[in-house]
Amino acid sequence: MSGRDVNPPNPWLELRRLTPARIALGRTGTSLPTQAQLDFQLAHALARDAVHLPFDHTGLREQLAAKGRDSLLLHSAASDRDTYLQRPDLGRRLNDDSAEQLREYAQAHPGGVDLAIVVADGLSSLAVHNHSLPFLARMEEQAQAEGWSLSPVIMVEQGRVAVADEIGELLGAKMVVILIGERPGLSSPDSLGLYFTYAPKIGLTDASRNCISNVRLEGLSYAMAAHRLLYLMREACRRQLSGVHLKDEAQLQTLDTDTPANGSSGNFLLAAPSD
């Protein structure tokens, strides 16, 4: 044996502890180790399950009612999950019954609202079940502090992002935000997305919306997401626009600005080399 270390340090192991990304998996011959392959298959199964998990709108509405919040249940023009997955366009509009229900509500409550709040299952009902209510609690508290009037929480089955524009227009809302389950990833089957539009109306494109994604415990916290959304809403009211012309410049603490008590950078990648 030479004096060379047979087990040299592996710098990838330090990085692996900091990310759910699939790095430093190792190998067995030309294949993945069995455990890494099993972990991949489990993550893939969880992502598929998240897409097909039924939307528990009843449970969410009961929890909202317990907190004194009204809600409405609507349905997109996609009649079932298979149709929803094959026809994205149908998920962007309400069905006739739901559109009429919303018109009747708007006639009974004239004057519109400052902010319409929509919750849709999207591509991950799991995300909505896990994160919509705790996020709403943060957001609504700050919105009410601004003096904005809020719509009931409007639940949409088989909904896609653009369905919020129709809802906002029918309600005469100045702004609309939709909380929706994002497409599941292999490390994040329950990621919640927020899409905000000023002056919503049917036919707007993604260029008219602002997106805040990856709202979940392992991603963007509820408090930070609410802070960013409220910044966008204030700026939208001031400038009367949203989308690509409205940049998210909210000041948030990051790893770069959080200095630990020992004076180090808090990020081993940026730490000065030892002597």
Architecture overview:
The chain has 275 residues and is of the alpha/beta class. It has a domain at 56-239: Ethanolamine ammonia-lyase light chain (EutC) (Rossmann fold, 3-Layer(aba) Sandwich), CATH 3.40.50.11240. Helices cover 39% and strands 15% of the residues. The chain is built from nine helices and six strands, in the order αααβαααβαβαβββα. The chain has a six-stranded mixed beta sheet, with helices on both faces. Helix 7 (125-145) packs across helix 9. The longest helix is centred in the middle third of the chain and has 21 residues, at 125-145. The radius of gyration is 23 Å and the shape is globular. Residues 253-275 have low confidence and may be disordered.
